[in-house]
Design brief:
The protein is built from 5 helices and 12 strands. It is an alpha+beta fold and 330 residues long. It folds into 3 domains: 99 residues, Elongation Factor Tu (Ef-tu), domain 3 (Beta Barrel); 56 residues, OB fold (Dihydrolipoamide Acetyltransferase, E2P), CATH 2.40.50; 127 residues, Helix Hairpins, CATH 1.10.287. A hairpin with a 4-residue loop joins strand 9 and strand 10.
């Protein structure tokens, strides 16, 4: 019995020694473990979109392709816009010739021409009114959408304005050209020219170009799909603006001052000790605050977002790559 107790005592002592040794080794290993801060690489991303609604005609680039500023990326086909351009040009020609006629003096043929244009405008207005009344009735019966109703209403209002303008032109021709009439005719020419310029500016977006050097990241629609005004067509990543983004607790912020530098590793490139220069420091929202767990002697710690660019620029640095910063070496 005494021998058994003796063996148990020896075993207990051995176990205590082993636990103590393991604990000491664990504490030493934990104490020597470096404090690593992990961030990631981000870059400016530009979404390519235009003012011209239409159908995707041709993609001149593909995903992953590098492009230069000014390169044409996509061609959009919009027959409606080209029709409006032709119409605006025709209206400008009409306004210009009418202005010339007024400057030359009112003739019987001019008066008759103005009267015919007024009659045409009245006929267009009657048709627009009948169409609007029909669509309004269908809208009340929930047969057509509000967008269709608004489009028809806009056409009706345009017809009203066109009829009034045609009537004024006819009245002006019948009464004879006065100084105010000539100024009005010149203003109509300027307005028509402005309409042409407006449609021309929209048609410029039929060929969308790259605003910066970069790489095509994602193409959203497919060839032949319809896109509206402002619809994102593709995204362009500006790789020259690749930078590291870190979230730093405020008690470690003295290591990351704006304008200062730090060293970091990029495992994806197998590069270590890369120098990054900090150009942006900003606090994150309250959701990123480190809450104190002690009643006294501590305080809540805010988290700050750090942006830093490599010096010199690092070839192959891409968004999504990890950046590891050893705080013990800073």
């Amino acid at each position: 019995m005494d021998r058994s107790r003796k063996y148990l005592s020896i075993a207990f002592i051995v176990i205590l020694i082993i636990v103590a040794v393991v604990s000491a080794v664990g504490i030493a290993l934990l104490r020597d473990k470096p404090t690593i801060l992990q961030g990631q690489v981000e870059a400016t991303e530009i979404r390519i979109s235009g003012k011209l609604p239409g159908r995707i005609d041709t993609f001149l680039v593909s995903e992953g392709q590098n492009v230069r500023r000014g390169d044409t990326l996509v061609v959009i086909n919009s027959p409606e816009a080209w029709a409006k351009y032709t119409q605006a040009n025709a209206l400008e020609e009409i306004a210009r010739y009418q202005n010339q006629k007024i400057d030359d003096g009112t003739r019987r043929q001019i008066v008759e021409s103005m009267r015919q244009l007024w009659n045409k405008a009245k006929a267009d207005l009657d048709l627009a009114k009948v169409t609007y009344d029909r669509i309004e009735a269908l809208y009340r019966d929930s047969v057509v959408t509000s967008q269709r109703r608004d489009e028809v209403e806009a056409l009706y209002k345009s017809a009203v304005a066109a009829e009034r303008a045609a009537h004024e032109q006819y009245q002006m021709a019948a009464d004879g050209a006065q100084r105010q009439d000539k100024e009005s005719a010149r203003a109509l020419v300027a307005a028509a020219r402005g309409a042409v310029d407006e449609v021309t500016s929209v048609l410029q977006d039929a060929h969308l170009t790259a605003p910066e050097d970069g790489q095509i990241a994602t193409i959203y629609p497919r060839r032949g799909e319809l896109v509206g005004t402002g619809t994102p067509i593709m995204s362009l990543v500006v790789l020259s603006d690749a930078h590291a983004v870190l979230n730093v607790r405020e008690d470690r912020l003295p290591l990351f001052e704006r304008g200062g530098t730090f060293r970091g590793d990029v495992p994806a490139l197998d590069r270590k000790g890369i120098v990054f220069r900090i150009y942006y420091v900003s606090p994150l929202g309250s959701y990123a605050t480190w809450r104190s767990t002690k009643q006294t002697g501590s305080y809540d710690l805010r988290t700050f977002e750090i942006h830093a660019r490599p010096e010199p620029a690092l070839e192959g640095l891409r968004p999504g790559m990890s950046v590891l910063v050893n705080l013990d070496e800073q």
